[in-house]
Amino acid sequence: MADLDRAREALRASMTAWATLEVRGDQASVIPVPQLDALVLRLDAVDPEWSLHWRCDSAEPPVVCARLGLLGRQREGLATGHTLSDARAAALAEAVRLYGVHSVGEARWVEYDPEDGPNTADLEAELELEVTDAAPAISAPPEPPRDPQMDKARRYIDDMLEQLRAAGRGKEAAQAIMRGYGDTLEESRAIYKQLQELLKGPAGS
User: What is the superkingdom listed in this entry's lineage (predicted)?
Assistant: First the structure.
């Protein structure tokens, strides 16, 4: 039971990122989701055998299932989102909630800019306080600062995914992106190039 409590604290403390569920004009609905780098560090300390698997159930609209294995338990979260990346993050957040982490997760509406994405600045301080109050026992290295170039690369990939869906190549695009958008700028550029080639190629290739 003590290990499960530690796992819940680790999961709760990682909920410092955001996923966009829906966009309506200049407004977006967002929810707190795990920051993956922080999640990996914290769960490695609790259970070195933990696992995470993804499954894309639909490319348009984006629907993803996340299966999180921890301390011999398995929980699956299913979610949709504005993009496949958002759906992945929201599905993981749902799996986290199924482990009993209920203190964070309410959807909020914020300003949205097509270039910069949702403006969560006002929510981040509030979420940080909530997470800190909920999990005071967790200590881990600070999260790395967000890289504006990586954020821009992810938006370019999202734009390319939209073009592929419009061209009827959504399923192939989903398969290409299932491992994520890349951990480095070089990986993200390679994924973008792969999607470009997919868009240029003949349907069904």
Answer: Bacteria
Query: Which residues on adjacent β-strands are paired with residue 150?
Result: none
Count of alpha carbons within 13 angstroms of residue 197, beta-carbon side? 8
Query: Can you say how many angstroms the Cα of residue 110 is from the centroid of all Cα atoms in its chain?
Result: 18
Here the tokens at position 188 are: 């993200």
The Cα–Cα gap between 205 and 196 comes to: 14
Long-range contact pairs involving 175-181 (C-beta distance under 8 Å, separation at least 24): 175/56, 177/84, 177/85, 178/54, 178/56, 180/85, 180/88, 181/85, 181/153, 181/154, 181/157
Between CA 75 and CA 118 the distance in angstroms is 29
- pLDDT grade for 139, boundaries at 50, 70 and 90: very low
